[in-house]
């Protein structure tokens, strides 16, 4: 059995990895600026940076895993690109929204909703393939 490398998913994982690195740097700079080493110390800017990074860290691994599994199990390249691009746009919008307010913002809500849509659609695709092709 030869290993199948999900190259399209790898592209989006790399791009999202760069976003994660940028959000990490924002948290580090916020900690240096505020002098807060743990938690947010009541600093609203630091709290926003922490939340933006944490939200990406919470949502992206499951979504990328599902997209990779869809790619490995035979989803077309166009579909995998669409899912990856949608996830990237969703996470950029969410990070932008969280970076500007801890309250509800249109980009944050759109990013969250699009992320849930990507996860749901991808999970249903995999389940459909499992039922029909096994």
- Uncertain runs are none
> What is the overall pLDDT average?
92
**What is the number of independent domains?**
1
Q: Structural class, judged by helices and strands?
A: mainly alpha
Percentage of residues assigned to helices? over 70%
Architecture overview:
There is one protein chain. With 134 residues, the protein is mostly helical. The protein has one domain (7-133): Four Helix Bundle (Hemerythrin (Met), subunit A), CATH 1.20.120. It is 81% helix and 0% strand. The protein is built from four helices and no strands. Helix 1 (7-34) packs antiparallel against helix 2. The longest helix is centred in the middle third of the chain and has 29 residues, at 44-72. 31% of the residues are buried.
List keywords for this structure.
Four Helix Bundle (Hemerythrin (Met), subunit A); mainly alpha; 134 residues
Annotate the secondary structure layout.
Layout: H1 7-34, H2 44-72, H3 77-100, H4 106-133
Helix pairs in contact: 1-2, 1-3, 2-3, 2-4, 3-4
